[in-house]
Each structure stands twice: as C-alpha cells, then as structure tokens.
Specification:
The protein has 2 domains: 3-74, Glutaredoxin (3-Layer(aba) Sandwich); 85-222, Glutathione S-transferase Yfyf (Class Pi), Chain A, domain 2 (Up-down Bundle), CATH 1.20.1050. The longest helix has 25 residues, at 85-109. The chain is an alpha+beta fold and 223 residues long. Helix 1 runs parallel beside helix 3 and helix 6 (148-167) packs across helix 7. The termini are far apart. The chain contains 9 helices and 4 strands, in the order βαβαββααααααα. Strand 3 (53-56) and strand 4 form a beta hairpin. The structure holds glutathione. Glutathione binds next to helix 1 and helix 3. Residues 8, 11-13, 35, 49-52, 63-65 line the site of glutathione.
C-alpha cells in the first residue's frame, strides 16, 4: 500500500499521526502543504481544507483520529486502543476532549497581551483540573501500556514543555499526575521523532508571526 501524509511542519494533529506511524513502524511519504496559502490541488484533495490528510492507495482519509484508527487497524498488533469497549469509548471521549484543549492552549500562547493571556490561562487550567482527576499515578493513561490516547496528548505536552524551556512558564506545575504522564510520553522515541527536529525554534517563530505577547518586546511581562 502506498501511503502519503499531507502535512504541515508544526501541526499538533499531524504530529499525532507522525507518532503513530513511528510507533507502528509504518512507511509513509510526506507532502508538506503551506496551509497559510493553500494550493488549489490541496483544496480539491482535502474536504475540510485541513491537514492531516492521508492518501492510502489514492483513497483520501481525513481527520487525525480517523486516520490514526485506520493506520492502527492495518498495521501490526497490538492495537493502540484498550480491548474493553467501555475503556475504548472513554479513551475516545478524552481524545476528542483533548483536541479542544489543544486549541485552548494554542489561543493562550497567541494572546497579544497579559490580560488576554491570563484569561486564556484560566480556561486551560479549568480543563487541566478535570484531566488531572482522570489520571491514576501510572506512566500512561491506561496503565503501563502506551496507547492511542497517550499519543493524542503528546503534541499538547510537547508545547507545554517548550513553554517551560523557552519562557519558564510551567503550565503543569499544579498537576502532579499530569506531569508524570507528560514525562513518560515525551521520553518515548516514537514521540520525540514525531516532531520537527527544531520544534522549539519553529514554535517560537509561529508565536512571533502571530504576535504573541510571549515574544513581543514591549509585552515581555506577559506572565
Ligand atoms: N480535527 C482536525 C483538525 C486539523 C486542523 O485543525 N489542522 C490545522 C493545522 S494544525 C489546519 O489544517 N488548519 C487549516 C485551516 O483550518 O484552514 C484533525 O484532527 O485532523
């Protein structure tokens, strides 16, 4: 099967699929798309005009969760969801929920002034409190085994990690179980190789481009 992943270098949803491809040792060609200036051929290919899009022998599949479930099913065992239907459904629920948190965190980092940053930070924190309650003191969400839900949260945790490294903002400071979870996820090779090799720099440039108060000199006191 010939797989092509239409990608963007710093997209959390593409990164989810990158990690799955690494975890399952699946070969896949990459085509990078300028999503700020989408070419016509891409708009014809992608029904939502978004990445990631997977072409599997020219069949087009979109939405990162759907792409990942498909790749999980066609690749070697073990499957990346728990077998138990209720656990599986709960994992899916929290993956969907996590997708909205990715956007909340993104809007927080793009805040153009301190007031806005604090407002968005409150939204993120209100969600992290809930997520912390879902965790046990295990390396991964379902226990010892890395699964789909762990890779789905990796891009969020990688961005939080970058905020610590570059701006000394520790979003997970008050959430010990989330910290344990994040550390275990980010330690994995399949995860590390799912991000651009210069991720921190790319993330910085994105914030700069978008006018984040974390970068602009006059509002360096954003936090
Ligand atoms: N729900 C989608 C979200 C994908 C998404 O938002 N991709 C962004 C890049 S990270 C995109 O392509 N944005 C272009 C646009 O919205 O016009 C998924 O999980 O695949």
């Amino acid at each position: 099967m010939h797989l092509v992943l239409y990608s963007f270098r710093i997209c959390p949803f593409v990164e989810r699929t990158n990690i799955l491809l690494n975890e399952k040792n699946i070969e896949c060609e990459r085509v990078y798309v300028d999503i700020r200036n989408k070419p016509d051929w891409f708009l014809k290919l992608s029904p939502l005009g978004k990445v990631p899009v997977l072409s599997a022998d020219k069949a087009i599949i979109f939405e990162s969760t759907v792409i990942n479930e498909y790749l999980d099913e066609i690749s070697s065992l073990p499957l990346l969801y728990p077998n138990d239907p209720i656990q599986k459904a709960r994992n899916k629920s929290w993956i969907e929920w996590g997708s909205t948190l990715v956007f909340d965190a993104y809007y927080m980092t793009l805040a153009s002034n301190k007031l806005e940053f604090v407002e968005k930070q409150k939204i993120v924190n209100s969600k992290l409190v809930l997520l912390e309650q879902e965790l046990r003191n295990t390396p991964f969400f379902n226990g010892e085994k890395f699964s789909m839900i762990d890779l789905a949260y990796a891009p969020l945790f990688r961005r939080f990690d970058s905020l610590v490294r570059q701006f000394s903002i520790d979003t997970l400071e008050q959430y010990p179980k989330l910290k344990i979870w994040s550390n275990h996820i980010l330690k994995k090779e399949s995860v590390q190789n799912g991000f651009a090799h210069n991720f921190d720099e790319e993330f910085y440039q994105l914030l700069k481009l978008k006018g984040s108060c974390l970068i602009s000199s006059e509002t360096k006191n954003c936090i």
